[in-house]
Amino acid sequence: MTVLLLSVAALGGYTAMGYPSIGVGLPLAAALFSAAERDRHPWPISLAAALVFTLFFSVLAASFVHEADTNVFSMFVHSWAADIALMAAVIALGDSIRARRDLAQRSARLVEATAEHERSLAQRVAAEERTAIARELHDTLGHQNTVISMHAEVATAALPGEPKIAQSSLAVITSTSRGMMKQLRDTVHTLREHEIRQPSLDIKTLEKTVLAGSPLELDTDIRTGADLDHDVEATAYRIVQEALTNVAKHSHATRAFVQIRDEDNQVSIVVHDEGPLRHRPGTDSSRVGILGMKERAAALGGWLTAERQGDGFEVRAALPTHRSPQHRPTGERA
Fold first, then answer.
1. How far apart are the first and last CA of the chain?
2. Which of 106, 275, 313, 325 could be cross-linked to 215 through a Cys-Cys bond (beta carbons 3.0 to 4.6 Å apart)?
3. Alpha carbon of 139 to those of 125, 151, 176, 279: distances in Å?
4. Cα angle, residue 143 at apex, residues 140 and 145 outer, rounded to 5°
């Protein structure tokens, strides 16, 4: 804004000193573009609209004005029309670039917020599970330790004159000790499993995070049952997340359609935008994202396609409602 004001002042001084006219559009074009591209103010759109309206009015009035006329209105129509068009164009260009930059930043913040939510969710689940394990250890092992201690005292007292009572107490100590060891092994096994456990991702979490926080205007159609396999829901979450991220990164679209339906033992997913694309599909970033989505779908025995639809783009996938045995990781039980 400072450069723009200085440019206007310099142009006014130039004109006041009687130098030949150079118009106003070209001298102010760079400053107008920079101000519209840098700052988020309501004036760029308002000014551009006013200039376009003035240009339209001037062109309309030009048919009623002859070039031979020398009045002020005639000079305005024939001399300022090009300047008005140039100023409106650079303001609109600068504001559109700023808007696209803001959209990219909001998309990046959305991805970061989603990742942070997943991390906090995993930490909360781990904390709850640790609390439950601690409670079980206290209640179970504490009780068993008390039993051992009591029977040890009974056995000690009974050994001189009542060997049968001592033997019975020692048998209780032996069986209780074995129970404690089993409990400890189960606890250690559980802890080791949860060290590599992935965050819980499901359709409800998708609606609360990715869909609710998207910078795009979304039309959603989500109809799923309550008995979906966990891995299927997690894969659906990742596919929709990646597809919407690609829309924000690679398309000029401001709206998108998301459909997730569970019918006929199949979860169908559709993410569609009207475009137009920012650039030709198949760049490194978009190709890696599409490949990752296809691999996730194939890992469950499903499929995924990603292709242009008119000026827009559409991702379509189908996943089995429950993962088939041949697609379960080695060692995983059904």
1. 65
2. 106
3. 21, 19, 14, 62
4. 105
